[in-house]
Every structure is written in structure tokens, then in C-alpha cells.
């Protein structure tokens, strides 16, 4: 049982769709975050589910690790093959299989990206709402339980995946869920695979809930003299029951970053970015009520974007905010944090984090999906500086501990990957061992994305 | 290892909170549906989580089955102790532990009922939306992944349970989830226990999402000459993006039943019952748009209920519809069906079912949560008539097969229990074996609600 034997068998099955060139291995050993490169032994490019099952079957027979790869946009090094083996790249399984407008769902292959899906959906009046910013693959988004700017209204991948086809560690192919909108028929296997980061099975097909394009959309940017007032505005808006489609926060440093990167031209102070979806009348009412709440709490310099091109520019600016933060310090890489806390603890969590970063030796703009209680500090480090890394690790650790102390989680949307696994015992206690028992039940050899999610 | 030894140890631990009287055993061996009575060997009444853990630990040591009991309102005999053993009655663990208005959540013990929770919440301006009709316990609702009339707007228990405390089969106590609104931190254990029907662990505490009481509410009843027009109205309303809080269907026979039972005074034809929640302006707009859609498709005799007492009467009538159907045939019991299909298949599913029942020898009013594609035929049988039972079983089997053929599920909200387990292989295929593997990992002795959910 060796990886080499598995590669021989895979080469015989896949021919030139088993990549072993240095560039291929380097590409699939890299990551968007700060983790050291770690190339796989080979990259498989399956064309259909049967081929995925065959790949996993061969790897199972030889005890060879198998790591799924979507678009490579993960921020926690989820797809780094820490024990080598085969990376399964789903880029050739990227078809939109079916759109069912009456059922408001789409069936897709895992390599399809969310932007490609939404482009394909344009003529239908429907869209897929989950929006993590990056043009991630839908399989990868399911595997990390991704969310993003619209989760406050439309939920995360947990809420928007209706059904899956999954290849298990022994090569069996199962279907979970159905096209019905709800079910009480047994354990929620769909929910178990969503967020399992490729450790329980490889997702080969997804049935996704779609939403109707809203009749009207209004977006706005609004500045605040103090971070606390911005956060209070978020809490008051939620409490008042105004159905926001998006509510995002940028602190002063993040605002400066998007000004420099996207020529946003915003006053250099904390900002909220909001969006409302609905009928013309509903959006007008929601916008007006939000405007009153924000103004009462000191919001100023409102800029409403009602034309599509203004809105697109606004959200493109937001989606590029990570790159804008990186550009604050040329050559920097980022240690990215992703805490999510109960709304009642949001102000304390953001303020304590900001004070911690201000007192540190590195920069760390803060931004986030504050309607969910989820925010990120983008901790900028010189890749070659051990002291930068140590300082960022210290700050990230304090953020994680603070989130847990306040009743939250160390990862709201990015997942565990390489970066968050040290916090699992503190977050989950004995429940982490239960995750390990489930992993052992479905992947007793431990060949699926070893080193991730569960106790090792 | 015998049940008798377990009972001795439990009696020593619990004293008179281990019930063994004939009336206690009879109560916990009964069910709301048509299944034969099946009393447990004893009934334990724990007062706190530690006591539940002790009970399960004792039972594990002696290989004694353990079955959780909430309010006894299950419609599929979930809590029938098919291998005897101890029923754990949570009626003394029925406290509302905490309400956190800023976080819009409540922490409750599993024996608290949904009506008691909502009574306790009245002064807060918040409510718990999941509404299965019966005054079920919240632990039981989580265990069966219950939903009901409001799922079309607020989701099912899957969407409204944020966190759990669970006693595992070996007596360990774990916590899943957190008070944060979302998380990507590992396997979704909360989602795994929700809907597991007491086979993976005993829920001892729940953290529930609450909703703000809507500023305005409008309800209406509307008749249709033909069932098809009512179902088309549902589909058109969903397609148009009108955010319904409830949309319910009663066929002609169910309408006759509620007329007789609740003096509803409706014309004897199929009806839709709808409700809208939101701001004054939003509810007015939604009501008007629904009214136009329904009128276009032949809806008539609209009755709007805007005063709270009118609305309460309307939904009390709906909630009593099951008892109203039973009363159509004095002395009858019901075999209850619970299919859920994709919306595109709803018209076909309802019409084929109605035709099947019309051609049969028994009565079977149809009603349901049609906004989710979920409907029930209440198949009325004389408890002593073997031919009635056979006819109902034949009809229920055809409904289940039809739902699966149309891409749906055999149970939208009631769960598997005793009645739906024969359909599991057809619905889930190899995924049912995966459920069995998960069960074996967490309950290797099979002491938790044996005979339910997974392959035996």
C-alpha cells in the first residue's frame, strides 16, 4: 500500500488526466492565505461521478490520501495535502446540469463557480444568493459551509443546499436530500456533508435553492465617526425587524484600503454598506427606516446607489476589500481571522479586537458581515518576518479566545482548514471527539483530506 | 445485562421518580396515531441533565433500551418502546432557562411546550415561529425535525435550533453549536441530532432562534371551485416572490370536516388559508397582490381576518383539522400520510392522491402546508376493520411511491417513527446504510430508541 502504486493505477485509468507536471503540482500546493506551499503527488481531473468513484476506489485500495480541489479560493488552506497523495481537481466537472424555475432550484456539478452559475441564470429571473466574495466553486463553498455578504437575508450554504451526490471513502456513491423543500426523513446527511471540508466524502453534484431576482434593490454607504455607533446601528436595525439583504462593516483602516485600491472616495472613518431587496414599496420603506435609525445614531454622508452600475461598483469594492487590505503593505501576506459572535456581544468583540490591534506592532483592518455577528481582521505580515507572524498569531489567538468567551465561534464562514484546528478542543469540548467518531465511521482509513477537521 | 437489573439501579437512583404503575406505563405506551399500544418497563422522570446522563449510563451498563418522551403528540409512534426498556419523560425538565432579546434567542429545557414558550415570550415582542399544530414539546419537535404552517416563511426546526445539549449513549454530555447566528466550525452536529428521533442522543437543552412579532398581520380564507386552481394559486404566489407567512390547503372533505367540528361556515369546496407578516404597508401590498393572483385563478368568497380574535379562530380551526377529520367518522382512527414533493409536482401529487382516495372504499380528507409542497391525507379507518387497514395501507403506500417518483420525500415533517421506516430503502438507497453507520458509531449497543430510523 503506497502512494506510488496508487498513482500507477490512476495513470492507467486516467491517462493524461492525471497531472504530474511541476506547475500542476505547484498550483495545487499553493493557497490564498499564509500557509507554506505543500504540493500533492499528483492531480486527477475527473470528468464524471463514475470517474471520481474510481479514483477514490483506487486510492482506498492503496491507502492513498485524496483531497478535493474546487477553485483554490479557500482562506484556510483546506486543500493542502498535508500527507501528500492525490488532489482531485473538479474543474472539468463544471456543468450547470439543470435549472428548474418552478421549483426555484438548480442542479450543478461541483466545479461550477458561483459567478458562472449566476451568469447562466440571468435570463431566468432567478439567482443563487450565497456570496463569499471570491468566485469560488460551488462544491468548495458547500464543503466549507461558505456564506458572505447576503447570509443575513438568504442564509449560508447550510440553508441553500437541498441535496447532494457524494462519493464516499470506499467509492460508494450516495444521494442525500431531495428536490422537496423540507423533509423529516432520517438523519440530515446533506447538512453533515456541507461543512465537512472533504473529510467525509467528495461532493459530485449539488441541488441548490435559487431566489427570485428582487423587483427593486437599493444599496447605500454610510459613515460614522465612531465604530461603536456603526455597530449599534446594526443591532438596532436587526432589532427593528427590517429585512436587510446585506449589512457590511468597514473600519477606518479598511475604508482607507478600499479608497486606495478601488478609488472609493469615502471619508476615512468607519462605514456600513447596506442593501435592501423587495418590491418597490418595500425597498423604499426599508431604506427610509434604516436611514432614520442610522441618522439617529450618528450616521452621516449617506450615498444611495439605486442604479445597477453604481451598486455593482459598490459591491465590487467590497469584494476586493481583502486584496485592498493586502495592498496596504506591499509584499504582505495575511493571517485572516473569522470570528462570529452573538449580536449582543458584537460591539464588545469588535472594539476589544480593534484596541488589541492598535496596541500591536502590525496592521489589521477590520471588516465583516456584521448582520450575522461575523467579522474579520486582516492581519498583515511580512512573509519573511518571524516577529510579524508571532504577533499576528498572538492577536488571532486572542480574537478566537474572545469569541469563545462571548459565546461565539472561531470561524463564521471560512472553515477550519489548517488555521483553526488548534481551537477545536476549546470550541467543541467532547463534541470534537464525536466528530472524530463520525469520521472514523465513514472513512476508517482516514484517506479523505487527512489532517483536517477532526482530532488526529 | 437485563432490563430488570437496570430498573433496580434506576429505582435506587430516582426513587419515586421511576414510575411503574399500570397507568404510567399505559400512558407512555400509547400514541396519537393507529399503532398498537406498547408500554415500556418503566418511566423515568429526570429533573436535570446530570440525572439524564445517570439514567443513560445505567441503561448502557445493562443494555437496557432508552426512549425519550416529550408531550406524546408524535403522529408516527416515535416513542413506542418496541424493545421495552425505560421511557425518559421530560415533563419535569420544562423550564424556559433564558431569553436573550438582543440575540433573539431562547434557551429552553426539552419538556417545555411551544405554546408555553410563546406565552412566556409575550411581553418580549418576540415569538418562536415553528408551529406543528399540536402543543408539542420543543425537545420532541427538534427530535422529529417538526415544522408546520409557518415553515414556508420561518423554516423548520432544522433552521430554528441554534445549539443543543445532548446526552450520548454512553452517558457523555456534549454541547453542539453556539449562540452565534452561523458557523463553519466542523461537522453540523446540531443538524445531525435534529431529526434523529432519539436514536443518537437525548436532547437536554435547546437554544432556539426567535422572531420579532410582526408589526402587522393579515389572514384570509379563499375558496376555489376546483382543487387544481387552489394549487395553481400556491405555485403562482411562490413564483411571484410574495413572502407568505402561511399558505395552507384544505380539500372539499377537509372543509366539510372543519365546518362540522369548528362551525367554520365555509362553502363546501377546496380552500386556501393564507397569512402575511410585515410592516403595515408591506402586509397591505402582499395581501393585495395575493388577492389579485387568487382572483385571476378563480378564487372566490375571500374572508380577511385582520383582528387578532378572528385570526386566532381561523388558525384554531386549522390546528383542529386533524381532530375534525377524525370526527367525520365516529370511533375512527387515522393512518396519516405526510408526503412532500417539489412544487412543480404538487398539482399532480395532490390530484392523483385525491383520485386514488375517491376510488377507494375509505374516506381521506387532504390538507397541508402547500407552500412547502407538503400535504397529508387523513385516511380514516375503523380500528377493528382489517379491510379498512389494508385499504389505507395500500393508499398510503401509493402516496409514498408517488412522492418518491416525483422527486420528493415520504415525510415532510412528521418523521419516520413506526410508519415510514418501510420506505427508507426506496427513498435513500445506500444513504440509508450510511445513516446506520453513523448510528453504530454513536450508539454501538443500539440502546437509544431501538427499532427506529436506521436499518435493523
UniProtKB/TrEMBL annotation, chains A, B:
Organism phylogeny: Bacteria, Pseudomonadati, Pseudomonadota, Alphaproteobacteria, Rhodobacterales
Protein name (Swiss-Prot/TrEMBL): D-lactate dehydrogenase (cytochrome)
Family: Belongs to the FAD-binding oxidoreductase/transferase type 4 family.
Lineage top rank: taxon: Bacteria
Cofactors: FAD
FAD-binding PCMH-type domain residues: 35-213
Pfam family, one: FAD-oxidase_C
This protein's UniProt keywords: FAD, Flavoprotein, Oxidoreductase, Transit peptide
Amino acid at each position: 500500500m503506497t502512494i506510488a502504486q496508487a498513482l500507477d493505477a490512476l495513470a492507467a485509468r486516467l491517462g493524461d488526466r492525471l497531472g504530474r507536471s511541476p506547475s500542476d503540482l505547484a498550483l495545487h500546493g499553493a493557497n490564498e492565505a499564509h500557509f507554506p506551499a505543500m504540493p500533492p503527488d499528483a492531480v486527477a481531473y475527473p470528468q464524471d461521478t463514475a470517474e471520481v468513484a474510481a479514483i477514490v476506489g483506487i486510492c482506498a485500495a492503496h491507502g492513498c490520501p485524496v483531497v478535493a480541489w474546487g477553485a483554490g479560493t479557500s482562506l484556510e488552506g483546506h486543500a493542502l495535502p498535508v500527507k501528500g497523495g492525490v488532489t482531485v481537481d473538479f474543474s472539468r466537472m463544471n456543468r450547470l446540469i439543470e435549472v428548474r424555475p418552478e421549483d426555484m432550484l438548480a442542479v450543478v456539478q461541483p466545479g461550477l463557480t458561483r459567478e458562472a452559475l449566476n451568469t447562466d441564470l440571468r435570463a431566468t429571473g432567478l439567482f443563487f444568493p450565497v456570496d463569499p466574495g471570491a468566485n469560488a466553486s460551488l462544491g468548495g463553498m458547500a464543503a466549507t459551509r461558505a456564506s458572505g455578504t447576503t447570509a443575513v437575508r438568504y442564509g449560508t450554504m447550510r440553508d441553500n443546499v437541498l441535496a447532494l451526490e457524494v462519493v464516499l471513502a470506499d467509492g460508494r456513491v450516495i444521494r442525500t436530500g431531495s428536490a422537496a423543500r423540507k423533509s423529516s426523513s432520517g438523519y440530515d446527511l446533506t447538512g453533515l456533508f456541507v461543512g465537512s471540508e472533504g473529510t467525509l466524502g467528495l461532493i459530485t453534484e449539488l441541488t441548490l435553492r435559487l431566489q427570485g431576482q428582487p423587483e427593486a434593490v437599493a444599496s447605500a454607504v454610510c459613515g460614522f465617526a465612531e465604530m461603536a455607533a456603526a455597530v449599534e446601528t446594526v443591532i438596532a436595525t436587526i432589532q427593528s425587524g427590517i429585512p436587510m439583504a446585506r449589512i457590511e462593516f468597514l473600519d477606518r483602516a479598511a475604508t482607507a484600503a478600499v479608497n486606495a485600491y478601488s478609488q472609493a472616495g469615502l471619508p476615512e472613518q468607519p462605514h456600513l454598506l447596506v442593501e435592501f431587496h423587495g418590491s418597490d414599496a418595500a425597498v423604499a420603506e426599508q431604506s427610509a427606516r434604516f436611514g432614520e435609525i442610522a441618522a439617529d445614531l450618528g450616521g452621516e454622508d449617506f450615498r444611495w446607489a439605486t442604479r445597477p452600475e453604481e451598486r455593482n461598483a459598490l459591491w465590487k469594492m467590497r469584494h476586493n476589500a481583502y486584496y485592498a487590505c493586502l495592498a496596504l503593505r506591499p509584499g504582505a501576506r495575511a493571517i485572516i481571522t473569522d470570528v462570529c459572535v452573538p449580536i449582543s456581544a458584537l460591539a464588545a468583540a469588535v472594539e476589544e479586537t480593534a484596541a488589541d490591534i492598535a496596541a500591536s506592532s502590525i496592521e489589521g483592518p477590520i471588516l465583516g458581515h456584521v448582520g450575522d455577528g461575523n467579522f474579520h481582521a486582516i492581519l498583515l505580515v511580512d512573509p519573511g518576518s518571524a516577529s510579524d507572524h508571532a504577533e499576528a498569531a498572538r492577536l488571532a489567538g486572542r480574537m478566537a479566545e474572545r469569541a469563545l468567551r462571548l459565546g461565539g465561534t472561531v470561524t463564521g464562514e471560512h472553515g477550519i482548514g489548517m488555521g483553526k484546528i488548534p481551537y477545536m478542543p476549546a470550541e467543541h469540548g467532547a463534541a470534537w471527539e464525536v466528530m472524530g467518531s463520525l469520521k472514523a465511521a465513514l472513512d476508517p482509513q482516514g484517506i479523505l483530506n487527512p489532517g483536517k477537521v477532526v482530532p488526529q
